[in-house]
UniProtKB/TrEMBL annotation:
Protein origin, superkingdom: Bacteria
PANTHER family: SENSOR HISTIDINE KINASE ENVZ (PTHR44936:SF5), SENSOR PROTEIN CREC (PTHR44936)
Subcellular location: Cell inner membrane
The gene coding this protein: sasA_1
The name this protein goes by in its record: histidine kinase
Chain ranges of the HAMP domain: 173-225
Listed GO CC annotations: plasma membrane
Principal localisation: membrane
Cited InterPro entries: 2C_sensor_his_kinase (IPR050980), HAMP_dom (IPR003660), HATPase_C_sf (IPR036890), HATPase_dom (IPR003594), His_kinase_dom (IPR005467), HisK_dim/P_sf (IPR036097), Sig_transdc_His_kin-like_C (IPR004358)
Membrane topology term: Multi-pass membrane protein
Spans traversing the lipid bilayer: 12-34, 151-172
Catalysed reactions listed for this entry: ATP + protein L-histidine = ADP + protein N-phospho-L-histidine
Pfam families named among the record's database cross-references: HAMP (PF00672), HATPase_c (PF02518)
């Protein structure tokens, strides 16, 4: 069970509960065994006292020739009667033997004096020697033993432990299930994707946390939407004054100054277009998903580049189909290919299987990206090139747009430096 892995919270809670309950069960079992031993001992001593008194009185009244026939009838599991002086032994008795001797002495006193001997051997053994009224010797051979444990008791304990561990596991799983669901919901929380509401059901504490989580999702979505709308509005509104400025410059005096102003206006327009594209990329899921022949799609994209004289090739392109949003995917690959062409002069496209999904990789042999900047370049307006020239550094939105669109269509964009130099930008689609 994944929730009960040793290093996790579930495993720790399970271990604490299991150790505590097993310790309690062990103490309860010890108390039960001790109480059972004391009760059995008390019953045995009481029975021993009564049986010995009756047996000795009976044998004393029987004729000597009939006593031997009655001896088997008087035997018990822990003691038996024998005629004669018995086996030789030592008068020193153990505490338990002394307690048994006291019960026998109480049963026979004062009519029959008793002498006790401890018989040596692998197990404890005690003999009581009695002289009957006719002078015949009688020996009571006592072999105290613990009562055997019932054969079904170990099985019952094993079943009890199994039920106990099962109940603990279910309790821990039930307690941790909301945490697992919260973690899964947080993992699914992506900008541009419709947020799934967390089920507001279960215990009161879970319901309260679910309502708070849903409210947080709504606040984040509103905040992101507001930022995107502001960016889109600003970028859109800038187009009108830029157009007026262009008209004025184009109708003005021709010369180097006019060319520089037109270049600046081109850069501003490009930045505005990229800003609008970035704002729309957050809502890339608006486009309907269709079933797409990926081979034909990639070939069409590459042929478009080759028709304009740019060096874009395909190194691996298996037959594959997937359900995705084609305009968003085209924009992602276009941004990645343009980025490779800008820094390396050529781009290679490789399509390969990635588990249950498909990876489309754009490879180049450019300067690559410092390892500590691979994540930073996916943020908007981040440029590694120190100059502010758009021809060399771009607007800083291309990779950010690709990353946003990849998340919006349920994919993931990853960058890594290639061995021998260059960069691999891989889009993995489910």
């Amino acid at each position: 069970m994944r929730a009960l892995r040793p290093g996790g919270l579930g495993g720790r809670i399970f271990l604490i509960l299991a150790v505590g309950l097993l310790g309690t069960q062990t103490l309860a079992a010890l108390v039960m065994v001790l109480e059972r031993d004391q009760s059995a001992r008390a019953v045995m001593l009481t029975t021993l006292q009564r049986d010995v008194a009756v047996a000795v009185a009976l044998l004393d009244r029987l004729p000597a020739q009939e006593r031997a026939a009655w001896l088997p009838l008087l035997d018990r599991p822990t003691y038996r009667f024998a005629l004669g002086a018995g086996a030789p032994g030592a008068p020193a008795l153990s505490p338990r033997a002394e307690m048994i001797a006291g019960e026998i002495r109480t049963a026979l006193a004062p009519r029959f004096p008793v002498r006790f001997d401890a018989i040596p051997g692998p197990t404890e053994r005690l003999q009581a020697h009695v002289v009957l009224d006719d002078g015949a010797g009688l020996t009571i051979d006592v072999r105290p033993t613990a009562r055997p444990v019932a054969a079904w008791l170990p099985l019952a304990l094993a079943v009890q432990l199994l039920v106990l561990m099962t109940c603990i596991g279910l309790a821990v799983r039930l307690a941790l299930r909301p945490l697992t669901r919260f973690a899964e919901a947080a993992d699914r929380l992506e900008p541009g994707r419709p947020a799934d509401r967390f089920a507001e059901s279960g215990p009161d504490e879970v319901v309260r946390a679910a309502k708070a989580f849903n409210a947080m999702q709504a606040r984040i979505a509103r905040h992101l939407d507001e930022r995107v709308r502001i960016l889109a509005a600003i970028s859109h509104d800038l187009q009108t004054p830029i157009t007026r400025m262009r008209l004025r410059v184009e109708t003005g005096i021709e010369g180097p100054e006019q060319e520089r102003l037109l270049m600046d206006l081109d850069a501003i327009e490009a930045l505005v277009r990229e800003g609008i594209a970035y704002a729309r990329s957050v809502h890339g899921a608006i486009e309907p998903a269709i079933r797409l022949d990926l081979r034909a799609f990639i070939e069409s994209l590459v042929f478009d580049y080759q028709d304009t004289g740019r060096d874009v090739t395909i190194t691996a392109l298996p037959d594959a189909t997937l359900t995705t949003r084609p305009r968003a995917l085209r924009r992602i690959l276009t941004n990645l290919i343009d980025n490779a062409l800008r820094y390396a002069g050529r781009a290679e496209i490789e399509v390969r299987a990635a588990g249950a999904g498909i990876t489309v990789a754009v490879l180049d042999r450019g300067p690559g990206i410092p390892a500590d900047q691979l994540d930073a370049v996916l943020l908007p307006f981040v440029r590694l090139e120190a100059s502010r020239s758009r021809d060399t550094g771009g607007t800083g939105l291309g990779l950010a747009i690709a990353d946003q669109l990849a998340a919006a269509i349920g994919g993931r964009l990853a960058l890594r430096n290639r061995e021998g130099g260059g960069l691999e930008a891989a889009v993995t689609l489910a």
